[in-house]
Amino acid sequence: MSRILPHFDFRIEVGTASDIGLVRGTNEDRLLHCPEHALFGVADGMGGHPGGEVAAEVALATVRAEISRPRAVATVNDYVQGPSLDARREVLALMRRVGVAANEAVLGARHGGPARDNMGTTLDVVLFAHSRAFFAHIGDSRAYLIRPTVTVQLTQDHVLHDTRRAPASATSPRRPAHNPLVNAIGLGAAVTVDTVFVDLSRGDRILLCSDGVHGAIESEAMLSRLCAKGTADEVAEGLIKHARERGGHDNATAIVVEICERFVKRGGDAGPSASDLTALSASPLLAGLPPPAVLGALAAGVEVELGPGERLPREVASDLVAYVILEGQVELRDGRRVGASGLVFPESLVGVRRKGELPVVRTATRMIRIRKDDFAEVCDHDRVLASALYRRLATFLASD
After folding, report:
1. How remote is the C-alpha of 161 from its chain's centroid?
2. What's phi and psi for 255, nearest 5 deg?
3. What DSSP character marks residue 334?
4. I want to staple 17 with a disulfide (CB 3.0 to 4.6 A). Which of 59, 231, 236, 400 is the partner?
């Protein structure tokens, strides 16, 4: 049954599932189901029973308490009433503060006894507002955006080793046996909180899951198949069943939020603004395409923002990435500066890694980031669009 969230323009359906697995003695995963604040989350505790359970519970309870504070409620309300760039940035700043508060709360809870000395947890939460989803991510649980044409991994694992070349099997998880977290709730006084947001449309699904789920899935193509059919509850249960069938090496938890019909229509920033669409349509990758084709290609993209002095990564979420600049300026390794509509790392979309220093952001820059595998999935879905995109890409690479 669909339900309505406060301040969110779409009805939703939610499915949740959690399982101890076949190896662990206890389930240290916890989930947050808080529709009254349009808030959902997954935490994968660590440190052993009972510490991991406590860390996960404390982190999620803190998230819930922080989002319900009057200041946070006002921030979300301001965004819904006037979804400007500045208001959007305030919501993202709120999500970062929530992650920091969760870290402080878990560190403070360690005084409860020796069993809590090394406790910690991952944390992934999503907040729905207006027509968007806002995420905070810490650790190696994950958030995905699952669309009819593409599955987009929104978060990057905060682990020491890359996992791309370690496929899952029926007898071993995908993640290497020793692949420690380098960022998590409770590891230290400083914590890095990644944030991202996405525009939503009817038919989209949001998946939050612990590594017991995503570590058992062979590929994003398999994830797309597992999430394509059934209700939100059936998808969540199916993901847990798949994890068990692949060995059940870890606790496994999944939250699936399906975006249903839109019942509120507002002005504002649902989809690219007119100026952003102009910049995108002038990009070498998209030039000359009709607006519906531009929007179809953007199904693989996620908007990101970097500040002056930051380096532009060529790999995100274990995959090569390209960028289309919406506004701002990036300096390439040869000294050239690229502004709005510029295309950076185009070779990534055909699997070629360019060596050398990373580009530097010179002014605050907003970009559409496109992962190689997501781009390929969109192209597989629409061969006519694929032909147009690859033709433009080849022309640009030949002239660059």
Report:
1. 19
2. -120, 125
3. T
4. 236
Cα distance between residue 99 and residue 67, in whole Å: 11
Identity of the residue numbered 223: L
Give the span between the Cα atoms of 326 and 367, in whole angstroms. 5
Whole-model pTM above 0.85?
Answer: yes
Structure tokens at 241: 């069943």
Structure-token pair, residue 279: 């910049």
pLDDT tens by residue, 142-179: 999 999 999 999 999 999 876 544 444 444 444 445 67
CA 299, 363, 354 angle in degrees (round to 5)?
Answer: 60
Task: Find the distance separating the first CA and the last CA of the chain, reported in whole Å.
Answer: 52
Query: In this structure, what token pair is assigned to residue 227?
Result: 């999430």
A 10 A CB-CB count for 335 gives 6
Output the CA–CA distances (angstroms, integers) from residue 303 to 10, 22, 259, 268, 366, in the order listed.
Answer: 21, 39, 19, 16, 7
Q: Containing H/E element for 330?
A: strand 319-331
**Nearby residues of 197 by Cβ (< 8 Å), 6 or more positions away:** 88, 91, 92, 132, 133, 134, 135, 303
The most confident of 53-67, 114-128, 159-173, by mean pLDDT: 53-67
The Cα–Cα gap between 19 and 28 comes to 10
List the helix and strand counts (H, then E) for the chain: 10, 18
